[in-house]
Amino acid sequence: MTADDTGCRILHVDMDAFYASVEVRDQPELAGKPVIVGATASRGVVLSATYEARTFGVRSAMPVTQARRLCPHAIFVPPRHEVYGAASREIMRLFREITPEVEPLSLDEAFLDVGGAIRRLGAPAHIAGLIRGSVRSQQGLTCSVGVASCKFVAKLASTLSKPDGLRIVPAGQVLDFLHPLPVSALWGVGAQTGQALARLGLRTVGDIAHTPEDTLQRELGTAAGAHLFALAWGRDERPVVARPDKSIGAEETFPVDVDDPAVIKRELLRLSGRTARGLRAGGSVARTVVIKLRLANFKTITRSRTLPEPTDVARNIYDTACELYDASGLDSRARLRLVGVRATGLIPASGAAPQLAFEEPPTSWRDAERAVDRIARCGPPLWSAGVRLVTLPARRDSHDHVARLPAADAPPADGTLRAKRPHQASGGCRGLFIAVVGLFAFLLLFPTTWPPSYCGGENERREAWSSHPSPREEVHGRRSAAF
Q1: Is 109 designated active site?
Q2: I need a labelling partner for 355 at 20 to 30 A (CA). Which of 82, 154, 281, 405 fits?
Q3: Residue boundaries of the structural domains of the chain
């Protein structure tokens, strides 16, 4: 039975043996072997070690000479900090696609406040599972996640769930979780403080909790005593302090590797639309478009281009993404595991002064996309249902279900939206009417401005612009922040 995660909005995500795991991912022949990442010089220290090496007592920050004595058959690998940094940035971006409330602690761990994502993605425990699955599928790495009502307990939970685990500490069971733990589990208890607590006969967190606070303050100092007493009772009021992302984007991991350029470009189109919506929702325009192409062997290629004019228009982003893909130098049948589109170099839209091109109509793609945004904000469920009822009528099943929405728009339960009958939906006719009018106005205003690759016929246009989801949708798009 899944533990009760009510009120547990704080997640702590910690990568497992991060540096060493990246090396094993990039060199599969190292899998299952004791691998130690660190400077090989005699005065070097261990930066990371696989769990196979840790069974011999090897730990981070240990001198390399000691690690060699403990595990003489270990494989020592020099660190590649640029590679670890790149992997960390991708992981943090994945977290920000879940929620903007992300507080990185280091390259390989972060706190997330998922309170704003619960309605969209589901319960915190479910979100934690989605994160673990996305990190594994996109990065080929594992992480451990703690779910709790405060930062301190969430971090402890992730530590105790390692490796590749998930632990939920229900809000009503925090003390049952904390009090049996040794005093060293508390933040701020090092060797010196541990000795002072031992002199008082305090061995467990429960011992500290049942010691008068003034006694702790007298022995440890006012601040330290009050700090440990609060933690021993599970009190940690610190919020997650977000560090805003400097880019907006989306990416998709295919259920199977794809080598068809048409399928890849169709996905680039969908991701460009999501990226543009994120820019407009955040009141930003982007100077640069970046695409990410991950091959089946996890090799990742990125290409970028700075635009002559900042944009928040899906068509401009898509055109640039396709040009970057065509110029990527990949073999025409290269198999891709993942594609992504990202907009960087963000500036406030209010500070950008777009220039009209020669003979450009006064009503542009930007106006049309913003109009669709406004219609969507008037009633997302009815808008989504209305558009899909019009554009994808063949996909309703015998139970009158409408096709599953993309993850950025999906309702929190099971990813499906049941179309309501007229007598069931409050205001349903009006919402459907607005959606249909908006869609047809868009088509009538711009009948000749579809991207060239999708001008062949009505079916192709419908497939391209109806946000037709891939067979498997990853959790992408920062709904609470931008999407």
Answers
A1: yes
A2: 281
A3: 18-82, 179-232, 246-355, 360-449
pTM for the full predicted model: 0.60
What CATH number should be reported for the domain whose range is 179-232?
Answer: 1.10.150.20
Is it the case that residue 190 has pLDDT exceeding 90?
Answer: no
What are the tens digits of pLDDT across the range 92-128? Answer: 989 998 998 999 998 899 999 999 999 999 999 999 9
Assigned superfamily of 246-355 = DNA polymerase, Y-family, little finger domain (3.30.1490.100)
pLDDT bin (cut points 50, 70, 90) of residue 254 is confident
Strand extents, DSSP E, 259-335: 284-295, 300-311
Largest Cα span, the chain: 84
What 8-state DSSP symbol labels residue 100? S
User: Above pLDDT 90, what percent of the chain?
Assistant: 52
Question: Among 109, 252, 473, 474, which one carries the catalytic annotation?
Answer: 109
Q: How many CB atoms lie within 10 A of CB 195?
A: 9
Quickly list H helices, 30-104.
Answer: 51-54, 64-70, 81-98
Residue 277 pLDDT: 87
Residue 376 to residue 385: CA distance in whole angstroms: 11
